[in-house]
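Thread title: Can someone regenerate the structure for this chain?

I was given the following input by a collaborator and told the matching structure tokens would be attached. They weren't. Posting the sequence so someone can regenerate them.
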Amino acid sequence: MKKLIQVFIMVVFVTLLVGCGHSTTDNKKFFRYNQSSGLASLDPAFAKDQSTIWACNQIYNSLVQLDDQLRVQPCIAKSWEISDDGILYTFHLRTDVHFQANECFSPGKGRTVTAPDVAYSFNRIIDKKVASPGAWIFNNNVDTLNPFIAIDDSTFQLKLLRPFRPMLGILSMQYCSVVPHEAIEKYGADFRAHPVGTGPFMFKNWKEGTALILTKNTDYFEKDDTGNSLPYLDGIKVSFIDNKKTEYLAFKQKELDFINSIDQSYIDEVLDEDGNMKPELRDKFNLLKTSYLNTEYLGFFLKGENEKTNPFLNKKLRQAINYGFDRKEMLKYLRNGVGRPAENGFTPYGLPSFTEDVKGYTYDPAKSKALLKEAGFENGKSLPELKLYTNETYKEFGLFISKQLEQIGLKVKVEITQPAILREWMSLGKVQFFRGSWLADYPDAENYFAVFYSKNSAPPNYTRFANTNFDSLYETALAENDDAKRYELYHQMDRIIIEEAPVVPLYYDEVLRFSQKNVEGLTPNALNLLNLKRVRFK
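Best answer:
Regenerated them for you:
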């Protein structure tokens, strides 16, 4: 009874919090979602986590943007050219994009965006005084003397140190949002709470820890296919309920229009074992599911004097582990079928370059046993107890894999440690067998292959994998402007990773979005980026 009363109080609190922003209150259509992790800033220079990325995506624009298939499309830039040597990118800007009205402008109205604004915004990212966590996107990639050039008001050039084809995708990131110098000069560090951009929604109010209000930008430049102005919504209201259980209850009470995933304790209530919405809920909510650019894996540390001190130096042992457990069953019982078994390469389903022609590992205990015998470890003979390091969240995955590997003669002890400590140990090479994940920052497989490039330290190369052929292909791919040719190089690299087995790919993740039945236009994408400019209510 006490627990029921607590839940009731939480739901009442949520209702009071977000109820005032009901979708159709006073004939205004506000879209309501919750950000359980809170929100640290509305400055795109600090858009390093989902909460900031989602909010900034509503307020700002970049030179380019991604469609739902993660293809680069025009935005502030209407077109561009890349020089034959892949070094110089020339962007031609639209002339009808305006910064949102704000007191930083005289007389309080917005102004037209120009190429110097783009140069200013990009220089701000690499300014050490700003200390943007996004500086890595340009550091060691752009020209050190004059990387950002405003040729005139509508022509901007980006100059690289060397060819780097993924740069276009990087420019779609929220770090690359265009901001006005007037706002930075007026608000200084408080720009985090006084954002000024060009996006479909503009800042109204932010009571930190309680709610964020954004309203429609009536001067927004984009239109739909029939010529109607975007966005359709009158605004957005974001709440900050830090309890995922309470968030789900608020969604059930129709006090939220959308939630991104649900608390694990409710997963069996909502999804069947195949990851589909249960029949009794299909008339109540929409389930939007798509691939997510996240590969979950187990990694091997590939340094050591010999196999006695590090048995994972034996490739056949690594391959045996890859064949030694059932990924399909693992997802069915531990994730209600959410995700796809990683039975292809390391790069996940959902990337434009993904292909099923790259064949990975499937469950084959006979082959696994044969490989152990070839490795000199038949039935686990001569092997010490192997230790798999993971955190509490993935404990059940470790136990599942351990139990199945035991059937082929391998004894694996699952060691639980805190995530931050585990990452530190992985970086220092203190663990030989560990669980990891790689979430894409931008939609290009290079983001994943950097994990195995020998010239990269840890992170991202936690395994210390080194392969001359792989490195050569990686460097060639960076300079290849033809997508088809670059993708073929990626496939060759993925096949090397499968053959050499520095990792055990577990599964390719999926995005689960739940929305109310009256929500239209909320399309998912593999980066789990929240786009609300085309959302409307029935």
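The first strand starts at residue 30 and ends at 34.
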